[in-house]
Each structure stands twice: as C-alpha cells, then as structure tokens.
Amino acid sequence: MASSGVDSATDLSIGANTDELRRASSWLGEFARQHDIPSEQIWRLDLCLNEALANIIAYGGAGASSSAIHLHLGVRRGPHQAEAVITVVDAGAAFNPLSAVQKQKPATLADAEPGGLGLPMLHAFSDSLNYRYSDGHNRLTFGVSWTEARQ
Amino acid sequence: MAVNFDDVNENFRRIALTGRLDIPGTEEISTKFTALAVSEKRRVVVDLTGVSFLASIGIRTLISAAKALQQRGGRMVLFVGGNNAVAKTLQATGIDALLPTFTETEEADKAAVA
Questions:
Q1: What is the ipTM of this complex?
Q2: Inter-axis angle of helices A39-59 and B23-37, to 10 degrees?
C-alpha cells in the first residue's frame, strides 16, 4: 500500500450492548459511502465490525460492559490501491483473536455445534488483522483493501 | 426483519427471511422461525434471497433449527438465489457443506423433498 493519497478518518464511541450494533453499522455505512468505498468492502467491514463487537459484548465481561467501546475508521488511498481500516478499542477481558484456537469445521450437520463462527468470519472477510493489548485495553484492527478504478 | 411462509403441502414449507440477520434482527425472528421450521418430518426450504446481512448469530439460528429438524426426521435446505453476500458468508464458514445451498428455487425444492 502506497503511503500517498488523501487520508480521512472518523471516530465513534458506543456502549457495549446489542442495541448499539446498528448505530455502529450506520456510522460505518455513512462514512464509507461519503468516501466512495466499494459496496463489497463496506459489506466485509460491516461483517467484521459486527463480529468483533458481538464478541466483546458476549465475552468482554464487566470491564467491557462498564466502559465505552471506541471505534476508529480510516481510509487511505494510494495511486492504485486503497484500504479502509477499523480499530476497535475496549476495556474488556484481554482476548487475542489471532492466537485463539479456531474450531475445526464439522463434517456433518449432526456434528455441528452452534456458535464459534465469529472468529472464522473475522479472518475470512478481512485483508489485514492485528491485535495488541495495552493500558488495559484490547486494540483490534482489521482492514479491507481494493484496487482503485482508473479514471 | 420479517418471516413469511408458504405451505406447499402438509409436510413441505417454504420460509422466507427478509432483512438483516445481525443480533437484533435474529432475536426478532428466532422464536417464530424455529417454530415454523421445526416439526416432525417436515421438509423446509429457507429462502435467504431477501437477507441483506448474515452474521454468525443468524447462522447459529439456522444450524440449530436444521439440527432439531433433522432429529425429527425432517430436512432443511437453503435457497440463496443471486444473493452473493449471503452465499459468500455461508461458503466462508463452511455452512454450505452442512446445509445444502441452492441458487435455483426448483433445485432447492427438489432437494428438500427428496
């Protein structure tokens, strides 16, 4: 990814509850459309954001539920390539989705256990995925990239 | 989020889901969908062509209902039509290997009643 181009960013703080999921999605959609992010990339970011937030709400514990979740969305455009990246910062229990063991895919419906699909989706639909824990906060960053249409 | 159904005959039901299957959307339809889908020896086609967003919670609901239906001697198949977003989500999670998934309605019907 080239470092040249116009950078734009936006931030949002939300509560750690399911009522806030659609507010986060609307925030993403509005910014993405304003900045001509392709619909495929908006959809992938939306899926990743939804799964990341659902994970925090379900498993973040008291630390997550008593603090706001901070979202940062940035878009960077190079001469040919572009990327949009979201960072999710929460004060919940430390959890690194990059080192978490993913369940094996079941072979049959009878073997399938409901759940455990959030992490595979996060991995499948992001082009970049990073995590660090600092100052008592999880900082999960995921991004999608695309080739800019030639003018 | 909406759930509609059409009974083709006593044992064959089409259920159409419309809207966003994220946590709020899934919570809205989960009880009704499961009640409509899970019945003794019922064959069910779940029409996902009108689903704009399929999160893991939505897939979980589909899997739970499909398992319960299978345990009662029934069968569930999915119809996605040209909904590429839903098809890609099912593919990425491997669910299309567990629940037969079709792009043509005739094929979905045929697989459900086979």
A1: 0.92
A2: 80
Cα B77 to its chain centre, rounded Å, is 6
**pLDDT tens-digit series, residues A53-87:** 999 999 999 999 999 999 999 999 988 999 999 99
- A109 within domain boundaries: yes
Integer-rounded Cα radius of gyration of chain A: 16
Q: Say if CB A75 and CB A83 are below 8 A apart.
A: yes
- CATH number for the domain spanning B99: value is 3.30.750.24
Cβ pair B55:A22 closer than 8 A: no
| Whether A104 contacts chain B with CB within 8 A | no
Backbone angles phi, psi at A68, to 5 degrees: -75, 155
* pTM to 2 decimal places: 0.93
Q: CA separation (Å) from A53 to A57, A99, A143?
A: 6, 18, 15
B83 contacts chain A (CB < 8 A): no
Whole-number Cα distances in Å, B22 to A20, A47, A51, A73, B18? 12, 9, 9, 21, 12
Q: What CATH number does residue A57 fall under?
A: 3.30.565.10
B50-91 residue pLDDT tens? 999 999 999 999 999 999 999 999 999 999 999 999 999 999
CB A108 within 8 A of CB B98: yes
Tell me, yes or no, whether A1 lies in a domain.
no
The domain tally of chain A equals: 1
